[in-house]
TrEMBL record:
Keywords: Coiled coil. This is KIF17 protein. The gene is Kif17. Residues 57-121 form a coiled coil. The lineage of its organism: Eukaryota, Metazoa, Chordata, Craniata, Vertebrata.
Length: 160
């Protein structure tokens, strides 16, 4: 019975010493790897935990695949971060442009109202009494970056 039990408990190869030795070596190797992983995880921080886990591989192809996946993941994160940065930068520029446009529109309205009020006070015999004519005669100077407007002239009419 004991002989049968020893054969049954270990299976057909219960007496095979080479197989037992191979199992012991595998178990020892697995325990060493587990201890390395535990030690590495204890030393690593949150960001590098993925990196540390990828250092233990069964084959080079597995290592290459894992590192390629990690590289793709990091590149994707970097691209997403870059896109978000550019979008926020463009949004800030857009807000700045819109506020500049609004301010310029308010200034234009102010100047237009001032001109409308002042135009009635300008003498009729002055060339500034007709704003449309002044606009037509004004010339933009590219060098100085400002308008050249005609000098005010008062036209006196003499009766014979």
């Amino acid at each position: 019975l004991q002989m049968l039990e020893r054969q049954v408990v270990g299976g057909e190869q219960a007496q095979n010493k080479d197989l037992k030795e191979k199992h012991k070596r595998r178990k020892k190797y697995a325990d060493e790897r587990r201890m390395q992983l535990v030690a590495a995880l204890q030393q690593s921080n949150e960001d590098s935990s993925d990196w540390v886990l990828l250092n233990v591989y069964d084959s080079i192809q597995e290592e290459v695949r894992a590192k390629s996946k990690l590289l793709e993941k990091m590149q994707k994160k970097a691209a997403e971060t870059e896109i978000k940065d550019l979008q926020s930068e463009f949004e800030l520029e857009k807000i700045d442009y819109l506020s500049t446009i609004r301010r310029l529109e308010r200034d234009l309205m102010l100047f237009q109202q001032l001109l409308d009020q002042v135009q009635s006070l300008v003498r009729r015999d002055c060339n500034y009494s007709n704003l449309e004519k002044i606009k037509r005669e004004s010339i933009w100077d590219e060098e100085t970056g400002c308008w050249k407007i005609p000098e005010p002239v008062i036209q006196k009419t003499r009766l014979p």
